[in-house]
Write a structure and sequence with these properties.
It comes from Rhizophlyctis rosea. With 168 residues, the protein is of the alpha+beta class. It is built from 5 helices and 8 strands.
Length: 168
């Protein structure tokens, strides 16, 4: 992947990992600290009127968030199938939400996928980067936690969006 599609793990997380020795990754102090969110910005303003997802993971070696897969014109079931069984992921999802009054909207949703079978070190690393990543991606109010990929369905997502504090 190009450097344009990565973001660094926050410095305080790296320091915490160094102190607790939870990661074997070598941290390079001179690494670029700028967040590159142009891909997510382009994704937010895409013209297509269908579901699409960006699945992100942390490259533990470099401690950077990188794009694992981009799914265009997809279903929620396809996104769920693309998730690993035992490793956390971040999902940025452009979702076609059909409202009860007939309107259709396309909210940008952040999903933190944290399966129960993942290692403690991975869970800690992903959890500590979660809010930073979605904040920098300018996704607020529509960030949901998911522990089992089988729970990721249209019904689950619609219920979450209708219950969110911001307008879907």
């Amino acid at each position: 992947m190009s450097a344009q599609n990565t973001t660094d793990v926050p410095e305080e997380v790296v320091e915490e990992l160094k102190v607790r020795n939870h990661s074997r990754a070598i941290f390079k102090p001179d690494a670029n600290k700028q967040l590159h969110i142009s891909l997510i910005q382009k994704f937010r303003f895409r013209k297509s009127k269908s579901n699409a997802a960006i699945i992100l993971k942390i490259d533990v070696k470099d401690l950077k968030v990188v794009v694992e897969e981009i799914l265009e014109d997809t279903t929620i079931e396809d996104v769920a199938e693309a998730l690993p069984d035992s490793t956390p992921r971040y999902i940025v999802l452009s979702y076609e939400l059909k409202h009860k009054d007939g309107r259709v909207s396309y909210p940008l949703v952040g999903i933190y996928y944290n399966p129960t079978g993942s290692s403690t070190a991975n869970r800690m690393l992903y959890a500590s980067t979660n809010s930073y990543l979605f904040q920098k991606a300018d996704i607020a109010g529509k960030i949901f936690d998911l522990n089992d990929s089988e729970d990721l369905t249209d019904e689950w997502l619609t219920e979450k969006l209708e219950g969110s504090k911001t307008r879907p």
